[in-house]
Design a protein that fits this description.
- With 110 residues, this protein is an alpha+beta fold.
- It has one domain.
- 24% of the residues lie in helices and 38% in strands.
- A six-stranded antiparallel beta sheet has the order 2-3-1-8-6-5. A two-stranded antiparallel ribbon has the order 4-7.
- The relative contact order is 0.26.
């Protein structure tokens, strides 16, 4: 199963945004992700990437992505119906330059 991430970074250049995103990916132990960097209309940059997870059941997947997420951010706000999707938002991070993170995953039925 996959999770989609959006990092909002307070950087003045794309090069700095790449550096910050690499540090975040190292912190969550997902360095294999391939981030896409784009300018954010409110300033800074938005970094978009997906992470793959080994869990095959929905409850295990939720636990796995939340465990991954709290390696680099805390005080997550959970919204939506957790039975169908995981939608998390955090504004507190251990990587300098990251201002907000949005993490989302939708349940896929086989």
């Amino acid at each position: 199963m996959d999770a989609s991430w959006e990092l909002f970074v307070d950087c003045t250049s794309e090069k700095s945004a790449i550096t910050v995103s690499r540090k975040y990916l190292e912190r969550i132990e997902k360095v294999e992700a391939s981030p896409q960097i784009e300018a954010y209309h409110k300033g800074g940059f938005k970094v978009i990437f997906s992470t793959k997870h080994k869990s095959t059941s929905w409850p295990d997947f939720i636990y796995e992505i939340m465990s991954t997420a709290q390696k680099a951010s805390r005080n997550w706000v959970i919204s939506g119906s957790i039975a169908e999707e995981v939608d998390l938002w955090s504004n507190e991070h251990s990587v300098i330059g990251v201002t907000s993170v949005h993490l989302q995953a939708t349940r896929v039925y086989a």
